[in-house]
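Quick log. Single chain, no ligands specified.
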Amino acid sequence: MISEKNKLDDLKHFNINDTLIIKTSPLTIIFSLNNKLLIYEIDIEKNTSKIIKEISFVDEIIYFNKLNIKKENSDYILACKNNKNIYIISEINYEIKFTFTHSKKLTSIFIFNEEGNDFIFFSDKCGEIWIKKFNKNTNEEQFLNESKLICGHCDPIIYMQISNNNKLMLSSDTFGKIKIYEFPNLFNILSVCIYLEDDIKYINFFGELDSGFFVLNKNNNIDIWSSYDFILQSKENINLEKDDNIKYIKLLDNNKLILLSNKKIFYYQINSIKYCLENKKEINIDFDIENTKNRLFYFNDKIYLILLNINNNEIKLIKNILIE
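-> predicted structure:
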């Protein structure tokens, strides 16, 4: 029998906000890799890049995002896996402004912005969901003290997501349970969906009005659920070879879903009315699995693939990887 500690150490879920565009002229991106933040300037036309800053942390990064993704100038939030720390990082010099240490190991986190306030929702290995509220006037003492336990699961939570219309929230745990809540009244649980233990690899809402959510399971199948009646609407099997596996996933704002395996790139358009995947495309790319990490970003209506050489931090850019 696998101990709960080892199960937590072996959790492999996707950091869905690991590549951010800082500015567009010159194009500057920042992304997380293991225990580092790497910042690059990229010349798309010449397909050249240079690293301008590297920031190291003592532990693996499990979450990284802007505090307010709708604002061009916004500080960043970062959380580490084992040392239980949540950091607020300045968007000007990327230095740490605040550090909050939770009492238990962190397993999932997301942020929500409303009327000038930032809300951090985070979960721990006991399945508890906490909330921390602050704004630009919050000082360090207030940031360290203000946390509130709101709800939870009986098992460690691996994903939490809020819908784009801010009316629903979902959470999933290692036992395979998905809870859908009314937001912000999380005491009102609207539905519970059950999967097998350790079966959920990724979960997210889709649609402008968040008409549904989808689940990627460990067998690389995608299930699409309705958020209105919480009924499974369709299933899609990702065509993988036996020795292949999905390694990275990105859901774009226009319901375009991109998946990277060891050998292929898959593209889907999620139909939020019919609850199905359409316009499937796939291409083969010869990845150097041992020495590269792969990232995607969306810029000027084109999808770009970054191949990062983990030995020397050099990156190669593949432009517009799929014809849309």
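The CA atoms of residues 170 and 180 lie 4 Å apart.
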